[in-house]
Write a structure and sequence with these properties.
29% of the residues lie in helices and 42% in strands. It has 140 residues and is of the alpha+beta class. The protein has a 6-stranded mixed sheet.
Length: 140
Amino acid sequence: MAGDPVQQLKDAYAAFGRGDIPAVMAMMNPAIEWHEPGLRGFPPPGGDRVYLGPKSVVNDVFAALPAAWENFRVVPEEYLGTGERVAVVGRFSGTAKGSGRALDVPFVHVWTVRDGTLCRFENYTDTAKVLHALGAISTP
């Protein structure tokens, strides 16, 4: 699967947004590295971990989202790409099931797209706002 990395990521976010996880998995390199920020004391996908391979990403990251969030959305707003590296700027939103607090927080995702596959993902966001929404801290 070769092509424009920015278009591949637009396709991946669109597939994720419509719940087509098999399509997202098909875009991943078998050895994908998925980096998530640490959310003190929270289980995946918040435990400052690196997930290896599409099955781990789906089982340990994607599957954990509905347990913690209602109406969780990942909304990309801008794609900035040079070669195999692409930054996606956007917003996470949803409501934490445990606290009932709303989340609306910006993110930057840094991707490596090599030989037509998604090889590496790094998630950067305001973890204090995420922890606040989850009810783990009182102020963001």
